[in-house]
Specification:
The chain is of the alpha/beta class. It is about 45% helix and about 20% strand.
């Protein structure tokens, strides 16, 4: 089995993780993105075409298929496209395409919505990628974007967990599969905002979520999760919001 196939399987397990914090971090992000997609489809910007850049395990493709007349899911990895084929067989309006947004073959101004969630942190040049997303959007179209925050405790802990000698203990603690994140381009909020502005986007909404406390998350179960949720609510609109894991943006072309 290829490493990409393993990664697809890992993404599927995250939403049903036995660890309460791990499950909450991914499910709360999924729910926010899903709500954002529903809201975008109701904003009168058109429901002709939605494009998802890097669909991964395909969590959002069925929802988009119900909201838009045409959905195009693109990825550079064939395993992800192959995995999503079961969705396209159930939804005739879904097309799957191997395409690199950095040199995309998608026509300009072809989409009402672009979804890019947890992808640009894997790209060395997110600035160029965001400009390409702007190119394929029609005037007034919406970009829904999410990516980890650079200095969040979870990202720092993930780097430590895969240091030599710590991989096996980390997997033992979670008793679930785990792979290195592959994050090569973690950005701060000011960096993302600047790149969106340079590409010609106007930010409509911002959000941050995902409190992670090392050791508390691993050993305190539901009690630790309640503490993390309480801390998240206190930090979301404060100067310490950079401690939360995921940053979200809805931006208009």
């Amino acid at each position: 089995m290829s490493s990409d196939s393993v990664l697809v399987q890992l993404q599927q397990t995250l939403y049903n993780s036995r660890n309460p914090t791990r499950r909450w971090l991914h499910c709360s992000r999924r729910d926010w993105i899903s709500d954002a997609l529903r809201s975008a489809a109701c904003q009168g910007v058109g429901r002709t075409c939605a494009i998802e850049i890097g669909p991964g395990s395909g969590v959002y493709v069925p929802l988009q298929a119900n909201l838009y007349h045409e959905v195009i899911a693109t990825d550079i990895k064939e395993d992800y496209i192959r995995h999503a084929r079961h969705v396209s067989t159930r939804h005739s309006n879904v097309s799957l395409l191997i395409d690199d947004i950095m040199s995309s073959k998608l026509p300009s101004a072809c989409a009402d919505l672009v979804l890019c969630t947890e992808v640009i942190e894997h790209m060395a040049d997110s600035r160029s990628a965001i400009k390409q997303m702007r190119r394929v959007l029609r005037p007034g179209g919406l970009l829904v974007l999410s990516t980890p925050r650079r200095y969040s405790p979870l990202e720092l802990a993930a780097k430590i967990a895969f240091l030599p000698g710590l991989v096996a203990p980390s997997r033992f603690i979670y008793k679930e599969p785990g792979l290195e994140t592959g994050h090569i381009n973690l950005l701060t909020a000011p960096q993302i905002i600047r790149q969106l502005d340079e590409a010609g986007f106007e930010i409509q909404q911002r959000h941050t979520s995902g409190m992670y406390l090392p050791l508390v998350a691993e050993f305190s179960g539901e009690t630790g999760l309640r503490l993390e949720k309480w801390l998240e609510s206190r930090l979301q609109n404060s100067p310490l919001a950079w401690l939360l894991w995921t940053q979200y943006y809805i931006a208009r072309a």
